[in-house]
Amino acid sequence: xxxxxxxxxxxxxxxxxxxxxxxxxxxxxxxxxxxxxxxxxxxxxxxxxxxxxxxxxxxxxxxxxxxxxxxxxxxxxxxxxxxxxxxxxxxxxxxxxxxxxxxxxxxxxxxxxxxxxxxxxxxxxxxxxxxxxxxxxxxxxxxxxxxxxxxxxxxxxxxxxxxxxxxxxxxxxxxxxxxxxxxxxxxxxxxxxxxxxxxxxxxxxxxxxxxxxxxxxxxxxxxxxxxxxxxxxxxxxxxxxxxxxxxxxxxxxxxxxxxxxxxxxxxxxxxxxxxxxxxxxxxxxxxxxxxxxxxxxxxxxxx
Length: 303
Fold this sequence. Notes:
Elements: H1 5-28, E1 32-37, H2 45-60, E2 64-69, H3 72-81, E3 88-89, E4 92-93, H4 97-121, E5 126-130, E6 137-141, E7 144-146, E8 155-157, E9 163-168, H5 171-178, E10 182-186, E11 188-190, E12 196-198, H6 201-211, E13 216-221, E14 236-238, H7 239-247, H8 255-266, E15 272-277, H9 283-289, E16 296-299
Parallel strand pairs: 1-2, 1-13, 2-10, 5-10, 13-15, 14-16
Antiparallel strand pairs: 3-4, 6-9, 7-8, 11-12, 15-16
Helix pairs in contact: 2-4, 3-4, 6-8
């Protein structure tokens, strides 16, 4: 017989876990929660199935999950097989026309549909979208400014068909959610002349959460969250303190854009942003439905 949680914890302990979750289930019922899905959780088979179960459970208990996913490693693999060089401009993937074709094929096709299939396999009603569907993500070409000499104007770097979000038109998301479906969104936007843009998934998730006035934005990463000087996890941080930690270089590297997305969301009306380690099994449930949580929550001082 397969071991169950009852074997390791006993029925009383399991009941305690369920009772601990009750106030959070009640609190989040009816709430829209946007989840950015990425990192190792999209590669490891067990974590992929854990994620699908978590998302399906959220929907069944009355929460409205909206998934925005990345797919960098998958894009890299296809580009490599096709002999297309991968280049980056200040952390942004240089996206020429040939690369854009691959990005759209991988994100809007293979990756998006595999996530839909996983959630559907767990019993969730799921629909895959890109930013082109229903004009969901309106974008324009991003320009990157690089300051080289204090006495000269900044240099404009061209990242190709990399976009910035101009507008989110969330009607299609709301319609799907109201009909009981779970939207799964690939971060591909459309320009005013129909051109396609590759957009950072964290940014899209933040903008989607803001447009929906979501109660929560969850950013899944491969690290535990924001750490203090002693490398201890900071479980909760307000927007003022987060900005101070960036200025003092306590927050550095890849965590900076995560925090910037978190700040933009909470300052645009999203209740809280939670940065969690997606390499932990059932990370979403542990963050939302336990007293301790597992990551860092960011909130606005004005809320």
